[in-house]
Amino acid sequence: MKTITRKELPEIVRPGSSTMIGGFLGCGTPDEIIDELIVSRIGGLTVIANDTAFPDRGIGRLVVNRLVSRAIVSHIGTNPETQRQMIEGEIEVELVPQGTLAERVRARGVGLGGILTPTGVGTVVEEGKETIVVGEQKYLLELPIGAEFALIKAKRADYCGNLSYSLTARNFNPLMAMAAECVIAEVEEIVPVGSISPEEINTPGVIVDYILVRGCR
């Protein structure tokens, strides 16, 4: 694990990268990492996230600044700019049911070949997908999804890179940290090893590549 400043981000995250971004409607999203992506104009991104937040918050700011070429999310209903760009053909949007999205990410993180879910059976979600019948129930086979980078937000890290999250930030951040090739965590503070109790460690430091402390430019 290495600590970095914002100015070092452009040397790590490349234009055109696939990026998982944690958070839920902007809560638990790494805002300073997003700030730097915007300032450095790192675009052409494929963003995998729960949602695109709002035009002035979280991932929505990347959309407004036209840095996202493709979004794989559970909904875009809170961001009219994402909707406009999708209708105009300026951004590709793949909508995935929220639970299915979370489980596809988890499957990648724990090494599963896919998941079976009844969600979407008999709808447009089923089109082009393999189906499997177990007993009398028909399921869709949904494949794992990962990314080159996971850009996540944690409350605290210790000097070994172990992460602890706060409240809603636990929804997607820990899953995404397991499913990416490179994990960059934005944290509010770094504390001595042992300051975070074992039951509060949600992401082990062994899978965290970089730590960015908020306010460290």
UniProtKB/TrEMBL annotation:
UniProt entry tagged with the keyword Transferase: yes
The keyword Translocase is assigned to this record: no
Record keywords, A-Z: Transferase
EC number: 2.8.3.8
GO molecular function: acetate CoA-transferase activity
Name listed for the protein in its UniProt record: Acetyl-CoA:acetoacetyl-CoA transferase, alpha subunit
